[in-house]
Amino acid sequence: MNLPDIQPPQVDWASGAFADGPLLSKSTRLRDLAGIFADEPARQQLPGEQVIYDVEMLATSPAEGELYTGVTHLYPGRVGGEYFMTRGHFHARREQGEVYFGLRGNGLLLLQNEQGEARLEKVFTGSVHIIPGFTAHRLINTGGEVLSALAVWPGVAGHDYAALANGFALRVMVSSEGWEVHHD
């Protein structure tokens, strides 16, 4: 019996670009991130249409047992003294974890549990990040090029942005050494 040769989706590890799969894309612009950066007046002075990050996902069912796969492309830049970052979120189903794989660029993954305890992990080409359940997460681009990370997470996980209405406990700011951590 001859089995059909089925070509699965592919990702270019150097760029994070998907090929051969049904894709969903979303751009998050500066106007979408009101209240996220420490210096809101500085954010308001920048063009609201500026894309801060793009997310491309393989179109997958959100059913129990299914996995989403996506790549976040976080562009370099800053608002005031703070680096560009993703909105960050908990999962709506808190027990669901996630895995990030650094593809290109340099940055940080900010992790915070429900008790407000936060930590940072360096993101770089080849880095692997296991994000446990009950943990909020945010990417921060501290470099001069696009920071791209591949993520895999349960289709049922969902996103809960409202739980972080008061923000994360840490902020990453520009410093003469590159970056420094401020406690909020």
UniProtKB/TrEMBL annotation:
Key words of the record: Gluconeogenesis, Glycolysis, Isomerase
Copy the pathway line from the protein's UniProt record. Carbohydrate degradation; glycolysis; D-glyceraldehyde 3-phosphate and glycerone phosphate from D-glucose: step 2/4
Gene3D superfamilies given in the database record:
Jelly Rolls
Instruction: Give the first-level EC class, as a single word.
Output: isomerase
Identify the InterPro entries for this entry.
Answer: G6P_isomerase_prok, RmlC-like_jellyroll, RmlC_Cupin_sf
| The enzyme's E.C. designation | 5.3.1.9
Q: Which SUPFAM superfamilies match?
A: RmlC-like cupins
Is the keyword DNA-binding in the record? no
Which reaction is the catalytic activity of this chain?
alpha-D-glucose 6-phosphate = beta-D-fructose 6-phosphate
One Gene Ontology term of the molecular function aspect: isomerase activity
| Stretches assigned to the Glucose-6-phosphate isomerase prokaryote domain | 29-178
Concerning its family, UniProt says: Belongs to the archaeal-type GPI family.
Q: What is this protein called?
A: glucose-6-phosphate isomerase
Species the sequence originates in: Pseudocitrobacter cyperus
Phylogenetic placement of the source organism: Bacteria, Pseudomonadati, Pseudomonadota, Gammaproteobacteria, Enterobacterales
